[in-house]
Specification:
The structure holds three protein chains of three kinds. Chain A contains nine helices and ten strands. By secondary structure, chain A is an alpha/beta fold. In chain A, the strands form two sheets. A six-stranded mixed beta sheet of chain A has the order 6-7-8-3-9-10, sandwiched between helices. In chain A, strands 2-1-4-5 form a four-stranded antiparallel beta sheet, with helices on one face. In chain A, helix 3 packs parallel to helix 6. Chain B has a domain of 197 residues. In chain B, helix 1 runs parallel beside helix 5. Chain B is globular. By secondary structure, chain C is mainly α. Chain C has one domain. Helix content of chain C is 71%, strand content 2%. The longest helix of chain C has 27 residues. The N and C termini of chain C lie far apart (39 Å). Classes of the chains: A alpha/beta, B mainly alpha, C mainly alpha. Chains in contact: A-B, B-C. Chains B and C meet through helix 4, helix 9 and helix 11 of B and helix 4, helix 10 and helix 12 of C.
Chain lengths: 237, 289, 295
Amino acid sequence: MLRVGDVVTAYGQLEALKGVSVAAESGKITCLLGPNGAGKTTLMMTVTGLLKPKRGSIAFEGQELVGLSPSEIVARGVALVPENRLVFPDMSVRENLEAGAYLRRKPAEIAADLDRMFERFPRLKERAGQSAGTLSGGEQQMLAVARALMSRPRLLLMDEPSLGLAPLIVEEIFRIVAELNRDGTSIFLVEQNAHMALKVAHHFYLIEQGRVTFSGSPGQLAEDEVIQRAYLGSKRG
Amino acid sequence: MLDLIQNTIDGVMIGGAYALLALGFTLTFGVMRRLNLAFGAIVLCGLYAGAAAHQALGWGLLGSIAATLAVAVAAGLYVERLCFRALAESASIAAMVSSFAIWMQLEEIAALLMPRRTYAYPALSEARPWEWAGLSLRPDQLAMAAVALGAMAALGWTLRRTRFGLAARAVATAPLAARLAGIEPARIGSAMFLLACGLGGLAGALIAAVDSQVTIKFGMWAMLKGLVAMTLGGIGSIPGAVIGGLALGVIESNAQWYLGAEWRDIVAYGLLFAVLYWRRGRERPWTNS
Amino acid sequence: MDEFLIGVLSNIGLMSLLALSAWLLLVVGEISFGQQAFFALGAYAAGIATALYGWPLPLGLFAGVVVGALAGFAVAIPTMRLTGLAFAIATLAFAELMRLLLQLWVFQREVDGERLGPNAVEGFRGVRWVYDHDLSALGYLGVIWGIVVVVLAALFLCERSRIGLACRAVGADAELAEAQGLPAARLKILVATVAGGLAALGGGLYVHLATYVEPQHFSIMLGVHALAYGLIGGLGTALGPILGVVLDIGLLEALQEIARYRMIVFGGAVAVLLILRPRGLLDEALVRRLTRGKP
Ligand SMILES: Nc1ncnc2c1ncn2[C@@H]1O[C@H](COP(=O)(O)OP(=O)(O)OP(=O)(O)O)[C@@H](O)[C@H]1O
Ligand SMILES: [Mg+2]
């Protein structure tokens, strides 16, 4: 469904991605694990068109995404739940969700999806009129997920949804990830929490210092080693 | 006491127009994080067009206001393309200086085309002031305040109830997240910019129609009033712009009455400096209302 | 040299000092709309010193610099915490206050049977030290440019010193610089003080060239021009603002035929220039390339 081929992305001189190739299969949960600064967020930003790669290709359902604007990419069915959630703090929960549906034009369908989100995330429903900045971290994460879903993506990208959340909330998030996947959304998940990620992933990659260093299914590599490499990187240097 | 009430009434009237000017700055600053120094010159171009239509073609009040709005938006489009859109996002100082250069340019074009010191602008109303219990109220000023209020209400509705307003607020509070939702900040910014120029044109038209004339100095005057009013209410806040505009009007009219005309602006600037110091210049985000 | 040319060159020198003052603040990342206030203070202080109290010119200029620097310092203390637009508007408010107060200020003395001194909106007339001491226009041009060259030399020395580097770091990212232990706020106050003094120096020289000043000379127009010069000429070197002044005053005063359309041409040219070079002609990247290899 998503095929990232040999992508190089740089900030000025510094190449944060040094030729990354990964793929996400339709209907599956794919995970990308790696330590801080490995380039995970950079990859997410490149796929969504916020950063332009220096070279390489990104194909989604056979169509090239490189060169498209973020809004065109959202329109094609790829949505990102950004790192650190980034809700619209001064807008109400409901307005945050409506903003997620910005590119859609049919009010009736949007209203129906809004109801579905409130069903799936009852806590958001209780706080529909409250401004998003006053939500707890976990609630904001739910809101960020729901907001991304409002664009009706076929592929949902998530950048460290467990970041800074209490264990119980993290479990809830991963339960939702599995649920969304069961309902038909393909998911590409970036994580540092290897333990939780390996539980839900069908396939996973390790990325270290801008390069993919492992690709396989959970169980192909001992969890200890994955955790080690996802947090700290290999002991190369 | 009566004087104070009268001054406050007068101040609120003119304050409505100040508020529109302040909103012009706030709208662009909120979405683009940039300052448009050509704002006053854009309004001036509109007013000169309105005055020209009045003089050469005999257009009345509504026609002149329409000409003012149209030319203000057209001049705004020119400034937006040349000074803002063409520059990278990070080049906000360059955009500001560039808009300053175009301010000079527009003003010179206006002065070359229409070299007299003043031009007549159709009057808003020639009805005599209403007197009541020692207070007087000019109908034209009341009309100005009413139109300004109506424009602000329409703006509030647009920001709160429309898809465009939702997108604009999203861009103003979290531009990156807005882009991830498929909103294009550059396009929203351009639209906001033109909307701001339209509001500025309306404010200018109201003031010119109350004075029945317009001078070349109007551009600079409008820019200073707008900036001061915006800052008094809290940079970047929409309700702040309205409050700042009204406050500036009331402060000015009272200072003028009690201290004399030469102290009017001194009090306003002194207060502005104090407010900035007091609030530590915190930039308030656009709030919901 | 013909008189017109001397006049233009003198103006360029004076405006260069004001432009340098605005540029200094740009280097530490602050926009000031108000440097004209210090220019005005310098003009009034130096003029009062020479015309009212008979001080010699150098001492008068020095008095102007001290007043300007003190004012710069005094304004920097309350505005130091402000950033971005808030700082710019605070400086604007201060400058307009200054101008409006000068419009009210009367301070006159009898000097040789003549009443001299600031006289509200009438301005301050009769600052004739240069003419009373038979300093020729060319001679005074030499004085102006001598001072500009000394100032430039001092700025170049600073640029390479630790303070200069610290200023650039603060200008690039004040928070980051602060995190690295640089005293960003104190540096900004220091720079604002120096900038106040520089602008005042320009003002002091100006009043002695023109023999009179009026408060209305010091409107925001003057300040924004000064700011624009730095950005046109380039933020990378102290020569940038001077280049900006030369381009505006020099080129366009020289081309008298188009003087009527001056701002139409110049305004458009500046806008296009800033699209191509958003940090001016002599920007940091160019300066780095030109000076690479040297210590
Ligand atoms: N805006 C930027 N400018 C310059 N360098 C950057 C920028 N953003 C990231 N980098 C660098 O690129 C590299 C990859 O960063 P990235 O944010 O993609 O890592 P990450 O894997 O998401 O890390 P984390 O787990 O901490 O979120 C890092 O070395 C980082 O310092
Ligand atoms: Mg990251």
